[in-house]
């Protein structure tokens, strides 16, 4: 990645809330690029993540809506029971296509479409989780020239998802949660 | 930008499908259609979309398989039970004032939503006066909807949803289990007309009292969404109802003025006529 990225995508599963609480809340309200987040949540439960993080974050937090443009200063969570995708023009789409890795939303679906839309101007981050979702998506980001970051499996609450992501992207940066927070800050200082 | 050859190939493929077969996916939201096309390409064993296009143009037998990748929706009966509860509690009392009713399930796919509505109508005592039109562009899906057979392992979820929708009967009253499949009672479709219809290219249906079209519009681009919503407006009787999926909305549509919120949180709208 050569220039400042246009967006950050984050995927997390089991242990997601605790991990994201170490990464997102202290980001400044002026953070200039959009952050798109997929967390695996049970499909029949209302998505409580938005309320939780809206209370804790300096940035604006909302549920992603179809056709809205992804804007800086905002964290978008995928709604439960829908996949979140990015269109070529940087607007957001939702789909109720079949689950991927038994999950809807799926991290792979967001990451692959975001890689397609933003190419090298994208950073993808895989956090804690007990499955393999996100490994193929992170690879798509690497192949498009974007940056790949994986939570250090040694300190992740659930190492399986970071390990799978590292297996498919051996060159990914391996960072602890505090370092991921710092990385996000440095990313936009370029 | 990387991938642009592929994007050109997709444009050409969609154009070919439209020109030769008259199925128009050109204004579908691109990220999803691309994902589905990639899946189709890989599973059908083509090395490129160009190779796929050549075969498709010379072998019509390939079309149904591809349509299944591009259109089929996995759904559930009574998906989003609160939507069906709102229909039951808020919309049904209005429907009861009409001596005869017409309902349209637009984009019925394999029929889960259709049977949910048919059961709800029966529970509310409206089935004898209601005709339901169930439409889709995919002939295989229409056939599946007409058959009304679902894997038995889905029934638990369907039953749970049905109960949460304010059920007045048991879902098991409506199907028989048979070799791992649940076969739904054919009486539920006595007054159902199945029909091939495209929201992209076809014209209006007349005088509907309720149109339910859930998780179809999210696959369309803005222009196509506006066309479909305009079609719904024209197809509705005065004060007719339109139900959309939980993440769909008329808010940003050019057609928004033609509707008022009826049950806002469930995306149920009512046709408004400016007098």
Automatic annotation (TrEMBL), chain A:
Identify which top EC class this enzyme belongs to: hydrolase
This entry carries the following GO cellular component terms, namely: cytoplasm
The coiled-coil segments of this chain are none
Matching entries from Pfam families are given as:
CheB_methylest
Tell me the InterPro entries matching this sequence.
CheB_C, Sig_transdc_resp-reg_Me-estase
Catalyses which reaction(s): [protein]-L-glutamate 5-O-methyl ester + H2O = L-glutamyl-[protein] + methanol + H(+)
Can the keyword Hydrolase be found in this entry's annotation? yes
Q: Where is the active site?
A: 13, 40, 133
Is Hydrolase among this UniProt entry's keywords?
A: yes
What residues form the membrane-spanning segments? none
Q: Name one GO biological process term.
A: chemotaxis
E.C. code:
3.1.1.61
Swiss-Prot/TrEMBL keywords: Chemotaxis, Hydrolase
**One example GO MF annotation:** phosphorelay response regulator activity
* Occurrences of domain CheB-type methylesterase (ranges): 1-190
* Protein name (Swiss-Prot/TrEMBL): protein-glutamate methylesterase
**Source organism (scientific name):** Sphingobium algorifonticola
The record lists the lineage as: Bacteria, Pseudomonadati, Pseudomonadota, Alphaproteobacteria, Sphingomonadales
TrEMBL record, chain B:
Q: Which Gene3D superfamilies does the entry mention?
A: Vaccinia Virus protein VP39
A GO molecular-function descriptor? S-adenosylmethionine-dependent methyltransferase activity
Q: Which SMART domains match?
A: MeTrc (SM00138)
One Gene Ontology term from the biological process aspect of the record: methylation
> What superkingdom does the record give?
Bacteria
Could you confirm whether the keyword Methyltransferase appears in this record?
yes
Q: Which residues form the CheR-type methyltransferase domain?
A: 1-250
Q: Record keywords: Transferase included? A: yes
PROSITE patterns assigned: CHER
Alphabetically ordered keywords of this record? Methyltransferase, Transferase
What Pfam families does this protein map onto?
CheR (PF01739), CheR_N (PF03705)
* Matches recorded under PANTHER family: CHEMOTAXIS PROTEIN, CHEMOTAXIS PROTEIN METHYLTRANSFERASE
Q: What is this protein called?
A: Protein-glutamate O-methyltransferase CheR
Q: What is the lineage of its organism?
A: Bacteria, Pseudomonadati, Pseudomonadota, Alphaproteobacteria, Sphingomonadales
């Amino acid at each position: 990645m050569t220039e400042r990225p246009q967006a950050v995508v984050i995927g997390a599963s089991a242990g997601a809330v605790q991990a994201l609480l170490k990464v997102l809340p202290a980001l400044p309200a002026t953070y200039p690029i959009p952050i798109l987040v997929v967390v695996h949540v049970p499909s029949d439960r209302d998505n409580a993540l938005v309320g939780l993080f809206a209370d804790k974050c300096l940035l604006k937090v909302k549920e992603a809506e179809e056709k809205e443009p992804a804007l800086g200063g905002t964290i978008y969570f995928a709604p439960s029971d829908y996949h979140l995708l990015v269109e070529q023009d940087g607007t957001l789409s939702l789909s109720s296509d079949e689950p991927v890795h038994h999950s809807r939303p799926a991290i792979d679906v967001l990451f692959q479409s975001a890689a397609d839309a933003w190419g090298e101007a994208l950073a993808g981050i895989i956090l804690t989780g007990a499955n393999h979702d996100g490994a193929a998506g992170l690879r798509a980001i690497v192949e498009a020239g974007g940056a790949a970051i994986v939570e250090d499996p040694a300190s992740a609450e659930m190492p399986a998802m970071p390990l799978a992501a590292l297996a498919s992207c051996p060159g990914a940066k391996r960072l602890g949660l505090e370092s991921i927070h710092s990385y996000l800050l440095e990313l936009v200082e370029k | 930008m990387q991938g642009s050859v592929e994007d050109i190939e997709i444009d050409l493929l969609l154009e070919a499908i439209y020109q030769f077969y008259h199925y128009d996916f050109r204004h579908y939201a691109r990220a999803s259609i691309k994902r589905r096309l990639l899946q189709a390409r890989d599973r059908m064993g083509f090395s490129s979309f160009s190779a796929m296009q050549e075969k498709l143009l010379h072998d019509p037998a390939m079309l149904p398989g591809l349509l299944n990748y591009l259109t089929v929706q996995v759904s559930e009966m009574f998906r989003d039970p609160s939507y069906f509860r709102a229909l039951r509690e808020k919309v049904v009392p209005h429907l009861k004032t009409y001596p005869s009713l017409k309902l349209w399930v637009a984009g019925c796919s394999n029929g889960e939503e259709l049977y949910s509505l048919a059961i709800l109508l029966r529970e509310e005592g409206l089935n004898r006066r209601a005709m339901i039109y169930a439409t889709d562009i995919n002939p295989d899906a229409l056939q599946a909807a007409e058959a009304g057979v679902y894997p038995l392992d889905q029934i638990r979820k369907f039953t749970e949803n049905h109960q949460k929708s304010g059920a007045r009967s048991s879902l098991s009253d409506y199907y028989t289990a048979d070799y791992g499949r649940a076969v739904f009672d054919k009486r539920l479709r006595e007054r159902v007309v199945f029909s091939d219809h495209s929201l992209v290219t076809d014209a209006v249906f007349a005088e509907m009292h309720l149109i339910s079209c859930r998780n179809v519009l999210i696959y369309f681009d803005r222009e196509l969404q506006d066309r479909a919503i305009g079609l719904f407006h024209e197809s509705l009787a005065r004060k007719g109802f339109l139900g959309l999926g939980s993440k769909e909305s008329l808010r940003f549509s050019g057609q928004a003025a033609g509707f008022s919120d009826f049950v806002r949180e469930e995306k149920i709208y009512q046709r408004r006529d400016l007098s």
